[in-house]
Amino acid sequence: MTFYRAKMFGPTIPKMTAAWHMLRNANEWKEPGGFFDHADSTKTANRLVRSLQNIGYQVIISPA
After folding, report:
1. Distance from first CA to last CA of the chain, Å, rounded?
2. Which of 5, 17, 20, 49 has the most beta carbons within 10 angstroms of its beta carbon?
3. pLDDT at 34 exceeding the cut of 70
4. Eight-class DSSP state of 1
């Protein structure tokens, strides 16, 4: 019985843990990965342009 219970509730445990920490500390969810996007913005921009071009879009960018 324990195996089936772990199989059924296993994926929800990390989500419940994250929710508990957010409620306990009164924090909002922050999407991970922001550091790497800002670390080298030129590389990130070029990667995103290539991604759009690969699916058929014509991309023209200019600095803000």
Report:
1. 59
2. 49
3. no
4. -
